[in-house]
UniProtKB/TrEMBL annotation:
Domain C19orf38 Ig: 22-111
One Pfam family of this chain: Ig_C19orf38
PANTHER family, per database record: PROTEIN HIDE1
Top-rank taxon: Eukaryota
SUPFAM superfamilies noted in UniProt: Immunoglobulin
Organism of provenance: Saguinus oedipus
Protein name: Protein hide1
InterPro entries registered for this protein in UniProt: C19orf38_Ig, HIDE1, Ig-like_dom_sf, Ig-like_fold
Amino acid sequence: MPWTILLFAAGSLAIPPPSIQLVPPHPSSQEDPIHISCVAPGDFPGANFTLYRGGQVVQLLQAPANQRGVTFNLSGGSSEAPGGPFHCQYGVIGEHNQPQLSDLSEPVNISYPAVRFLNL
């Protein structure tokens, strides 16, 4: 996968975290698919994104060369989808052709409607 080239000002090595959000339709059960958007701030098109759940890698995607984000699509009922929290991160090539990783995004938690049992 090609990496986006990023040139840093001297002494500035921090890469800001991406934004993350749950994309509609929102799941109503653990069998429903989950769609999570992850977008890099500023001018970082074509970055490589990683989605984590509980600190474990769930999926890797690269943004198209003219876009700053991706949407992760997780299958309902699979081991990659349930629970959370989910975080994402992106990477680019920085100074001296060294890979640079952003900070992790804020968490996104997936919750499902509570199942109610009626006593008749």
